[in-house]
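Hi both,

Apologies for the delay on this - the queue was longer than expected. I finally got the zinc ion-bound model through. Below you'll find the protein sequence and the ligand SMILES exactly as submitted, and right after that the structure tokens for the full complex including the ligand.
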Amino acid sequence: VRCAVPILFTLVVIILNPDITLSQDNNMLLSSRAEQLVQTALRDQKGYFWLKELCAIGPRLSGSQNSLQAIAWAEKTMRHSGWDRVWLQQVMVPNWKRGLREQAMISRSSFFLKKQLAIAALGGSVGTSAAGICASVIEVKSLAEIDSLKEKAKGKIIFLNRSFDRSKFNPNDSYGGAVDQRTRGAARAGRVGAVAVLVRSVTSKYDNAPHTGVMYYEENGTRIPAATVGQIDADFLSSALLQEPNLELTLRLSCKINPDTISYNVIGEIAGSEFPEEIIVVGGHFDSWDLGCGAHDDGGGCIQAMEVLDLFRRLAIKPKRTIRCVLFMDEEQHQTGAERYIAWCDSAGQKHLAAMESDRGVLTPRGFNVDADSLVLIKIQSWQKILEPTGIDWIRAGGSGADVGKIKGAKALLGYVPDSQRYYDFHHSANDVFEAVHPRELELGTAAMAMLVFLLSEEGL
Ligand SMILES: [Zn+2]
């Protein structure tokens, strides 16, 4: 008798409000769709084997021959996947080249003569002469410390040695706390008359792999060469300087800034069956650094975006809205690919409902960041339960990504967020190779992205 009242109440509510049963049915349908996406992605591992093909081409530095080969591969692969439209969008990109010679050697010392340090030029750096730059070294921990050196910095190599703060829970915060040395160190040291900078690699893994990345000069500032040094050798140099402050280092870099060159964004789409003019972008950046093959950053993210559309084809899903995969060129240096895409959208009157980016590595799914007004955020958050079979635990307000973040007028910009604890082990280094990617982690992320794209397409915002 005690149970009868709530059951009766529920029945009355259902009879008076048929929408509830409908939406419960709908939720069950959507949950089984999520299960189906997970099972198909995990079983087939199609994206994982695409990534293997992509990585076999080699790294995809903007403007490089490899990057053009990779663009041709992506275009061909999209065409084979049977989408409605595939095209290349021309864009001018930076054309920095590393060159073969990279050496930092202790060239005057009573104890460490001829010791070689593991280094790599930073992206965008000028090179040295063939003979190299020979100078003594001053260690600092911050840009402000460079400013305060004034005259003392003249003719010296500045060694920026602030560590990646391992005590922080979120490695993105640790990265953010150290990366200004890499991006701005050379510009600041050039101001006070230094001749080169060496920067401790920004990474969470204690090894000797140099982690490169972009650096920027000031508009009319002095341009001095900049290289990064592996963590083990950074610690070695720091202790060697304590023992022998006047030791000298010779730095040789053959990198070169060449004139901008032609490249392409790769774009493909499946047209919406009901609202084809409403576009949902899913994408990543197709350029990479050149020390590994950009498997996590961001080959894997691009492959996930491609596989979202491929999963729709494999499962005969006909989305209501247009799903467009965009592989943006040149995120790592100047984001010219994203700018080109957006300029074209503006001139062609393209209307985005939403845009999603995967550029935080292809690791175990955690959540989605959403950049949207609060009502839209609440609507997307209401889908979190449906996304659970794909491993998504949360949906929060947060930044989307460097490329899709530039798309204005979309109702929601989304960033796929996998677990970040190991990401900076690989990031921008020789560690970022195909073997560092786990198929289950990559494919679960693909399923999560596909399910959220499906919800956006079917439910709208
Ligand atoms: Zn990236």
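Main takeaway for now: The chain is about 40% helix and 25% strand.

I'll put the files on the shared drive as well.

H.
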